[in-house]
């Protein structure tokens, strides 16, 4: 199994000059990577479905850079578009018309979209969505789902977290996923005060089995929002273009008012997008919202190439099918060794958990054994498929998983 030597030297350098060394959920201090000693911390290069760390270990990467790697690292079509645009110009006083080309492509691709607005990160557009809802309705309050993630802006965080004060979150109302009655009650208890309901298209929290919408859930939410003048904003940052090129609201048979995209938009180039309906276009242009790099042309060129290729190859269907093969196999291999591997969420961004013990320790042991053999999984975050992965890669991963189950079983004779 792999060893990590140079890794620790680099990390020592990093913590001296960077708070946390590697910050947020991408670092070894995060719950995603337990036990940290099983994981590589720094990459040296990446290609297709794989990356190599600073110790020369190769990983098939099921985190996909937390989603952006949708076509494969260094995809040739995207990178050709990037190189061409770099020669023409990137961050210029007057934006390139690539911005218009991309907005037109989004409007053509995303079913609900009458317009598109571009920023850099997922959190830029979830915050913008909530601001637009407030501007359009003149109301203060936002209903959101417990355990949902919309970024790191103060309004998205929890009271008690460092740096968060009660005013940041005092206009949020939290409901449980799939509990339409709770939304109904919140609306009834706050008449004329709810600007927005924001949620992901299905529930993909950390540490918890992911959950699809119950039958008619979104249709009921849609009707309530329409009846009460509430803006329905969907955070498609993670699911976007891994379920349906027309948007995840389309996949689940409803129409959102605002849709946030980011991760799979440009194969790792830095651009996010908010799409909206005509009725919210004036409110969107009324909000003061922009940034130094938001109109840069290289990421627009990357996004155009990425979306065009995803449409051409029917990326979402490919990833859903391949993900199903991978997860069906993992479940069966687990079963053959006496492990109950529970799979949830969509197969293109599935969540998994060994259910033999509630502490999740066995799960962490198995994941660590997979990582040390070259299959990069996080423990308690959903995982991702990309379009560079093949059936060969799935077989390779199944082999690693099999060996990892054997290693865990050997350490736990009590499992029988
Ligand atoms: N919403 C969802 C559903 C996400 O998964 C993420 C990123 N993990 C965000 C918002 C925030 O995106 P970013 O980190 O690019 O700001």
Automatic annotation (TrEMBL):
Its cofactor is pyridoxal 5'-phosphate. It comes from the Bacteria. Keywords: Aminotransferase, Pyridoxal phosphate, Transferase. GO terms for molecular function: transaminase activity. It holds the Pfam family Aminotran_3. Gene3D superfamilies: Aspartate Aminotransferase, domain 1 (3.90.1150.10), Type I PLP-dependent aspartate aminotransferase-like (Major domain) (3.40.640.10). InterPro entries: Aminotrans_3 (IPR005814), PyrdxlP-dep_Trfase (IPR015424), PyrdxlP-dep_Trfase_major (IPR015421), PyrdxlP-dep_Trfase_small (IPR015422). The keyword Transferase applies. Belongs to the class-III pyridoxal-phosphate-dependent aminotransferase family. This is Aminotransferase class III-fold pyridoxal phosphate-dependent enzyme. It comes from Lutispora saccharofermentans.
């Amino acid at each position: 199994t792999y060893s990590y030597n140079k890794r620790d030297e680099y990390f020592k350098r990093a913590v001296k000059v960077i708070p946390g060394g590697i910050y947020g959920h991408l670092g070894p201090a995060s719950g995603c990577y337990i036990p940290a000693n099983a994981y590589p911390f720094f990459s040296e290069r990446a290609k297709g479905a794989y990356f190599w760390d600073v110790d020369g270990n190769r990983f098939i990467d099921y985190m996909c850079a937390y989603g952006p790697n949708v076509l494969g690292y260094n995809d040739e079509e995207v990178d050709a578009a990037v190189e061409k645009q770099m020669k023409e110009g990137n961050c210029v006083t007057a934006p390139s018309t690539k911005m218009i080309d991309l907005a037109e492509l989004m409007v053509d691709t995303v079913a609900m979209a009458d317009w598109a607005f571009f920023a850099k990160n997922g959190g830029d557009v979830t915050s913008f969505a909530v601001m637009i809802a407030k501007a359009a309705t003149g109301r203060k309050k936002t209903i959101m789902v417990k355990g949902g993630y919309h970024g790191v802006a103060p309004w998205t965080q929890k009271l008690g977290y460092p740096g968060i004060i009660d005013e940041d979150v005092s206009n949020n109302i939290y409901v449980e996923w799939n509990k339409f009655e709770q939304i109904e009650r919140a609306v009834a208890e706050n008449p004329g005060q709810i600007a927005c309901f924001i949620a992901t298209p299905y529930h993909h929290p950390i540490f918890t089995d992911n959950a699809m919408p119950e039958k008619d859930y979104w249709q009921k939410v849609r009707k309530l929002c329409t009846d009460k003048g509430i803006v329905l904003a969907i955070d498609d940052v993670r699911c976007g273009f891994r379920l349906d090129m027309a948007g995840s609201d389309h996949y689940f048979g409803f129409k959102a008012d605002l849709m946030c995209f980011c991760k799979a938009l440009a194969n790792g180039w830095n651009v996010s997008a908010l799409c909206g309906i005509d009725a919210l276009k004036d409110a969107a242009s009324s909000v003061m919202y922009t940034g130094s790099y938001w109109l840069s042309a290289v990421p627009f060129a990357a996004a155009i190439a990425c979306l065009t290729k995803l449409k051409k190859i029917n990326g979402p269907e490919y990833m859903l099918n391949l993900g199903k093969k991978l997860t069906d196999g993992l479940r069966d291999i687990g079963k053959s060794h006496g492990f109950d591997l529970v799979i949830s969420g969509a197969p293109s961004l599935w969540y998994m958990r060994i259910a033999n013990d509630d502490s999740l320790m066995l799960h962490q042991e198995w994941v660590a054994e997979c990582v040390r053999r070259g299959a990069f999984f996080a423990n308690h975050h959903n995982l991702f498929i990309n379009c560079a992965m093949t059936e060969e890669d799935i077989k390779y991963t199944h082999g690693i998983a099999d060996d990892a189950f054997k290693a865990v079983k050997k350490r736990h004779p009590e499992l029988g």
